Amino acid sequence: MEALVIRQRLAKVQPTTMLPDLAQSLTQLSANLIHLGRYDDAIEVTNEALAVRRRLVRAREDAFLPGLAYSLVQQSLCLVRLERPEEALLADNEALTIYRELAGSRPGAYLPSLGQCLCQLSSILGCLGKHEKAKEAIDEAIGVYRELAKTRADTMLPKLVRSLKHRTTCLLELGHYEDALNADEEILGICRKLSSSQSILSLYQLADSSNSVAWRLHQLNRDDEGMSLAEDAVSIFRNLSHDYPEMLEHGLCCALDTLSVCLSRVGRHQEALKAGEEGIQICRSLNEKLAGMYELELADSLLNFSQILYSAGQYASAEVTVEDALSRYLHLSENKNPKYKNKMQEALQHLAEVHVAAERQDKASRASAQSLIPRVAPETDSV
Question: Which of 184, 297, 365, 368 ranks highest by number of CB atoms within 10 Å?
């Protein structure tokens, strides 16, 4: 901070020579604040950096335009974290215009930045509920990374994987489940290649992508295929979590959850119960240690486990478990997010099924009535 103050003073008396150094110092400080999650402070520093960079661009556009684009991306990221997506969209679009121009003349230097900017644009559009436009942006980013990966596979394949994951999210929001499966299967193929290095990161990505494909297959009622991939994911996460428990226990509980629902669907109820119970125990422990960070994941796992208990004929345990899930969804729904209300309706419908199966029609009628609360429809892109 002391060095920054000195540069600010020098820039007032020697702007020609000191403004570039001041801009760089502000940009670095902003990056550090973003890393620490201090977005309110970071946005102030970023805005100051932008003011300096715009002044520099007016004097020498060719030399300082890349710095302006970079600061705009920083500003956009801060605004997203501060839940100001409309403003973030404006900043990202300005950066995108600059990076398109720069990549046109120097693709080797600026195509990676263009890809990153497109990924961020897609995320912002998703936050605004514009999922078709978000998909268009991420598709363009994927095209950029595919091209770059032809000559820079080591550095660009991981970026391609991240952009494909984001595309899967867009496709799921649009209800395109088969296309989402195809994207996840491509990710799995890339992760299998990358895992030859046997690094912790590459093995984690392999397990994570195996679990994603397994879950997608479960959603499409192809549990026999999904089960073997879920078993692979559990095995990898279990082996890695011995040495890195805090990093990988979340992945293990997700994979156990997937494995349990696949096993239940194919009629292997006892194995499903064992896997599901282990996953919930891990998730509960993580959620307690991390002050509720995994509350939604725990609620989802409880709902899945209740359905497994129901399939195994254990109606009393299924009732207790789904009521636990319901209480968590109710707490989460207080922040007005529509997806939590939809999850709560799903849990209420399942609770009604449990009561019917247990021949408790009075409770079933009340739960069914509550489940008739209208679903919150997903937002659609405006024309």
Answer: 184
Q: Please, are residues 227 and 206 in contact by the beta-carbon 8 Å criterion? A: no
360: three-class secondary structure by DSSP: coil
Q: 7 or 119, which is more confident?
A: 119
Question: Whole-prediction pTM value?
Answer: 0.79
Q: In the block, which residue shows the tokens 């970026």?
A: 159
Q: 3-state class of 83 per DSSP?
A: coil
Residue 316 tokens read as 């009393």
Would you give the distance in Å from CA 285 to the centre of its chain? 22
Render pLDDT for 18-56 as a digit per residue (tens, 0 to 9).
Answer: 588 888 888 899 999 999 999 999 999 999 999 999 989
Q: Considering just the CA atoms, what is the radius of gyration of the chain in Å?
A: 25
- DSSP class of 195: G
pLDDT digits (tens, 9 = 90+) for 133-188: 999 999 999 999 999 999 999 899 999 999 999 999 999 999 999 999 999 999 99
Is residue 4 within 8 Å of 26, Cβ to Cβ?
A: yes
Neighbours of 303 (CB within 10 A): 23
Name which of 122, 125, 117, 124 is nearest 100 in CA terms.
117
Residue 367 burial (CB < 10 Å; 0-12/13-18/19+)?
buried
Tabulate helix, strand, coil % of the chain (nearest 5).
Answer: 85, 0, 15
Nearest residue to 101 (alpha-carbon basis) of 65, 51, 52: 65
- Cβ atoms of 329 and 314 within 8 Å: the answer is no
The single-letter code of the amino acid at 381 is: D
DSSP secondary structure of 16-36: HHHHHHHHHHHHHHHHHHHHT
**Residues 277, 317 contacting (CB under 8 angstroms):** no
295-311 helix and 315-332 helix, angle to the nearest 10 degrees: 160
Distance CA(314)–CA(276), nearest Å, equals 14
Token output for 94: 């300005």
Token pair 């996460």 is found at: 237
Residue 206: what are its φ and ψ, rounded to 5°?
-65, -45
